Amino acid sequence: MYLVGIDSSGEPEKKDTLLNNDPNSYFVISAVIMHEHYFLSSFKNNITNLISSFFNKQLEIHLKELTDLKRIKAMGFTFNRVNDFLDSLYDTIGKSDLVLFSVVIKKYPPRIKISKKEYRKNLLQTALQLLLERISKYFDKIKLLETNEYALLLVDESYYRQDIVLRDIIKNELKEGIYTSKRLSRNNIISNPLFYDSRDHILIQIADAVAFCVRRKFSKPIKSGFDFSKFFEKIENKFDKCNNNIIAGCGIKQWYFSGQ
């Protein structure tokens, strides 16, 4: 079975005014795919050992907190220690047997009158649709159906009502999506995702690290001292590629969103 860790960076909220390349104008959702055998036999231990080697304890890989200089100090860590950890983390991701996908949503003020709730739902639906289209295409490429393998989606839990919304979006996309429903692999992607607190699953934490890195890559840099352009270079080769060996459109999809 293949495991698909899914998490996002940024908020899917409506903004009436957004500056060009403002990080708050970007929402990124990412997926990390690897076989369960590799995850259990190697990858999970590699990451937990890496965390312990830098911090002498286990902690959640949550980039929003790990790049907050005040939070770093409050946790008793130095900037250099966290920076070295992130450098090693992205280096490990780039050398692991996995495949990455990211959908980069550039948010614009809505062109029509729309509630915050509807805007949020539409944005999440668009992001998940674009992500699942690429995941299902990849699974067709590696012949998931013919090898009689299955794929399980592991999603970072939020709160009950939103998780229900996300579950419905995923089920509908696999069953009725314009492109996803036509993929041979769709029936081997388990349509009922599992929602985890990210603290309880390393793969979701890695998806968070990937989504955060991609969002920083595409938006205006924040003065924090962390070089996410360098971190991105370490994982760039792991994004899925189109037939012409180009990442854009396959491993990374950009989309402009204004409410619909």
Blueprint of the fold:
Elements: E1 2-9, E2 26-35, H1 36-55, H2 63-66, H3 69-74, H4 79-94, E3 99-107, H5 116-141, E4 151-156, H6 160-176, E5 194-196, H7 202-218, H8 228-235, E6 252-257
Helix pairs in contact: 1-4, 4-8, 5-6, 7-8
Defining traits:
6 strands; alpha/beta; six-stranded mixed beta sheet; 260 residues; Nucleotidyltransferase, domain 5; 8 helices; globular
Structure, explained:
With 260 residues, the protein is an alpha/beta fold. It has a single domain (2-257), classed as Nucleotidyltransferase, domain 5 (2-Layer Sandwich). 44% of the residues lie in helices and 16% in strands. The protein contains eight helices and six strands. The protein has helices at 36-55, 63-66, 69-74, 79-94, 116-141, 160-176, 202-218, 228-235, and strands spanning 2-9, 26-35, 99-107, 151-156, 194-196, 252-257. A six-stranded mixed β-sheet has the order 5-4-1-2-3-6, sandwiched between helices. Helix 1 runs antiparallel to helix 4 (79-94). It is globular, with a radius of gyration of 18 Å.
